[in-house]
Amino acid sequence: MSYLPYVNAETTALRNGVMSRVYAWMTAGLLVTAAVASFVAGTPALVALIFGNPLLFFGLFIVQIVMVIGLSAGVNRLSPAAAIAIFMAYAAINGLTLSAVFLAYTSESLASTFFITAGTFGAMSLFGYTTKRDLSGIGNIAIMALIGILIASVVNIFLQSSAIYWVVTYVGVLIFVALTAYDTQKIKAMSQEVQTEADAGRVAVIGALTLYLDFINLFLYLLRIFGVRRE
């Protein structure tokens, strides 16, 4: 006879609350990014500082990459409070670079694309959370495809091909639609393994970062399709 390990009511409640924390921190990160981007776009001195200095602009990109890798790799060694602080700092720095989007596109198209993104993201995240189907295969394909479009995007910097641009755009949308469902399922599985409040806090932050990145990238690809540039 096999026995399932006993899980007390407190641990069950802790595990069941992780996903709500994930979405809460993800939303907080998106709000920080939007607020910073909007503020920078409306402040000519900051626009000139960030976009008038290529070294600073690309330096911000490098800092963001380092922060994402560092948080992902070191989250188990960080306190939940430190992990949250790093995530929020990353969201703010991301807002500095994404202010370019607020400068390039009309506010109406930004708003409409945001709602399209939110609806698509919400539907796919709900699917990932509720489905009984293992999405690992889809997730692995999406990750490999992501590497492919990153390479294609770099190559297209030199080729300047509109065909490649639009192929990358539509494939990018499909990739992040798939990753949203896959990552949600993966985070849900992680949430069911937590044992302590600290574990729950760390899973909530890394889950929020993962879904935040899915949302932002989905938004940027959809903006290529639905965005209206300022004249």
Commentary on this structure:
The chain has 231 residues and is mainly alpha-helical. The chain has one domain (9-226). It is 84% helix and 0% strand. The protein has 9 helices and no strands. Helix 5 (80-104) packs parallel to helix 9. The N and C termini lie far apart (72 Å). The model has no long low-confidence stretch (mean pLDDT 94).
Shape, please? globular
The largest sheet, given as strand count, sense and whether it forms a barrel, is: none
Cα Rg: 19 Å
The portion of residues assigned to helices is: over 70%
* Assembly context of the chains: single chain
Task: Provide mean pLDDT, rounded.
Answer: 94
- Beta-strand residue percentage: under 5%
Structural class by secondary-structure content: mainly alpha
H/E order of the elements?
A: HHHHHHHHH
Q: How many E strands? A: 0
**pLDDT < 50 stretches:** none
Separation, N- and C-terminal Cα atoms: 72 Å
| Secondary structure tally, helices | 9
User: What's the number of domains?
Assistant: 1
